[in-house]
Specification:
By secondary structure, the chain is mainly beta. It contains one helix and 24 strands. The strands form three sheets. An eight-stranded parallel sheet has the order 1-4-7-10-13-16-19-22, with no helix packed on it. An eight-stranded parallel sheet has the order 2-5-8-11-14-17-20-23, with no helix packed on it. It is globular and about 40 Å long.
């Protein structure tokens, strides 16, 4: 079983695809970076299982591009508010609200409200709102019920939601049928599905004509 599990882990890592499975909550490991919170907010943020719902998520750009959240992600539960900035290592899930910037080396899933900028590997805004800039080294995913007010920067963007701000993408920007962009878009490749709306300029990088 160990050998089979190791082979599956190797293949998953090779193709960049991870599957999230629910796991029992675990206590923070020694030395783990915990968010700084003010005394007047509830500080009981613990790593808990955080499954990524798929019913409203836009389909990924490709099999090698997929946003995932670890079962041991740090979670801010619904109804709770944390004042940032938050500096983390690993995955982070916002089901409540954050007033301040979020910066992490892992992935971020936003189902609640964030008033601040987010910097991470992959960022997913799912039925949530974000008032600030998004900066991802990988991909930004925005579902059809999401609202983002701020500029977006990533290697690739897959959006079905509403964006009020400019988009800067290194490779592919995909705007799905329900996407609404109020701002300019700059990318190497832009794919716009019928029904998407853009209120700004489209600039294709690397195009000489």
């Amino acid at each position: 079983m160990d050998r089979q599990h190791g082979l599956k882990a190797f293949l998953n890592e090779l193709f960049g695809v991870w599957r999230v499975q629910a796991a029992p909550a675990s206590a923070p490991q020694d030395g783990a970076v915990q968010p700084d919170v003010q005394p007047d907010v509830q500080p009981d943020i613990q790593p808990t299982p955080a499954e990524v719902p798929t019913s409203h998520s836009p389909q990924p750009l490709g099999d090698d591009v997929r946003s995932t959240i670890s079962p041991n992600a740090t979670v801010i539960e619904a109804g709770k508010t944390v004042v940032g900035p938050l500096a983390l290592e690993g995955d982070f899930c916002v089901r409540g609200s954050v007033d301040g910037d979020i910066r992490t080396t892992g992935n971020v899933l936003i189902e609640g409200l964030v008033k601040g900028s987010v910097t991470a590997r992959n960022i997913t805004v799912q039925s949530g709102g974000l008032y600030g800039d998004l900066d991802a080294s990988g991909t930004i995913f925005l579902d059809k019920d999401s609202l983002t007010v701020g500029s977006l920067s990533a290697d690739a963007i897959d959006t079905a939601g509403q964006i009020k701000g400019d988009i800067h993408v290194q490779s592919l920007a995909l705007l799905r049928e329900s996407a609404v962009l109020t701002g300019d878009i700059e990318a190497k490749t832009v794919k716009i599905k019928p029904g998407a709306a853009i209120g700004g300029k489209v600039h294709i990088t690397g195009c000489n004509s």
